[in-house]
Amino acid sequence: MMRDFVPPQRLLLGPGPSMVHPRVLQALAAPLLGHLDPAFLGVMTDVQHLLRFVFATANPFTIAVSGTGSAGMEAAIVNMVEPGDAVVVGVNGVFGTRLATVIERCGGKAIRLEIPWGQVIPTEMIESALRRSGPVKAVVLVHAETSTGACQPLEAIGSLCRDHNALLIVDAVTSLGGIPVDVDRLGIDVCYSATQKCLSCPPGLAPLTISPRALSAIKGHRTPCQSWYLDMALVAEYWAEESRAYHHTAPISMIYALREALRLVEEEGLPARVARHRLNSEALVAGLMELEFLPLPPAEHRLPMLTCVTLPPHIDEAAIRRQLLQIYGLEIGGGLGPLKGKVWRIGLMGESSTEANVLTFLNALEEMLIQFGWLSTPGIALHAAARVYSRTGQKEY
Please, what's the b/e burial string for 107-116 (b: 16 or more CB within 10 A of its CB; e: otherwise)? Predict the structure, then answer.
């Protein structure tokens, strides 16, 4: 007979999933209701209101797609892109590359703006592409590129898209709940995310918001959406607050969990949450730089919730990561694509973003470097991080 599975204790400081608050785990264990039970429909309504708060939007169509962040990505693209549509897409990491692939699978023409990984797409580059490419259906950008730790500026892009009659689609998988997304202020038409990053909920749902302008584009489609499951024109009938019609069986326990995770965000407040992520990131980076682990993106485009650092050439990155997991139960991420073996990706997202976790990680890393003979002065990273915390005068969250 197969024995019970007891997960080992882990401190999740990788690119996702993040740590989960006990209240969210408790919500997962609540008794099931039917997916059309009036009490459960009330939970869905709560989730919609809380998601509007986190997205900073008044969009009526704001839901949680049943599926992971990749389902949110698919939903955003398959509902907007028809065969023959030209779509400008920023490609500066894994997820920009993936978006271009999904666009092409929909029969769209992906106009790839490719730049080196770790950099961001310049606004002028986007404007030039819009001018020279004729009618463009949409501009697609990754706000927080999880593979590089780079934060894409969005300030001028929404108005630029409107000037060219294009939609703006934004991947906020890693940014939502960690830095401002500001959907309405930025003029974002479609924005999707995932539950397991800064929202600190288990993976399984993809928050999605669609502007009235984008919904009009959906209604004007020449061809049916290529996905039945992710056809938002159909899903909308299930999430419509005034009258809900069956579409699919929602992941009920996950929606309980998301409601509780979003309540935690609301209780903390978005400004305080953003400040917490920035403070802990600054302390982490200060410690890593003392050890010659250098951030990949420049400071002005560096994500506070996902730090991507290059390693000194003499260090065996895989060996250290393996030891951190085996000895300390501490998970961080390695590089992807051309960055494999060259960088680490350290997540301080949501519940994972605490002073205690920063200091625990830096202490474990120093011990490993000393053990391998790669560090002779213990405490330098911890002292650098401590100086950041003492300078701000803020205590651990």
Answer: ebbbbbbebe
All domains of the chain, ordered by start, with CATH?
Answer: 22-267 (3.40.640.10), 269-392 (3.90.1150.10)
Which contiguous run of DSSP H or E holds residue 273?
helix 270-290
Phi, psi (degrees; rounded to nearest 5) at 347: -95, 130
Q: Which of 277, 286, 268 is nearest to 391 (CA)?
A: 286
| Rounded Cα distance, 10 and 317, in Å | 19
What amino acid occupies position 363? N
**169 SS3 class:** strand
pTM: 0.96
CA 97 – CA 148 distance, rounded (Å): 13
DSSP of 296-342, one letter per residue?
SS-GGGB-SSEEEEEPPTTS-HHHHHHHHHHHH-EE-EE--GGGTTT
Strands annotated E in the chain:
11-12, 61-66, 86-91, 109-114, 138-142, 144-145, 150-151, 167-171, 190-192, 205-210, 294-295, 306-310, 330-331, 333-334, 343-347
Taking the C-alpha atoms of residue 280 and residue 349, their distance in angstroms, rounded to an integer, is: 10
Q: What is the pLDDT of residues 341-388, one digit of tens each?
A: 999 999 999 999 999 999 999 999 999 999 989 998 999 999 999 999
Amino acid at 85: D
**Is 345 annotated for ligand binding?**
yes
Please state whether beta strands 109-114 and 86-91 pair in parallel, antiparallel, or not at all (unpaired).
parallel
Pick from 69, 67, 117, 63: nearest CA to 93: 117
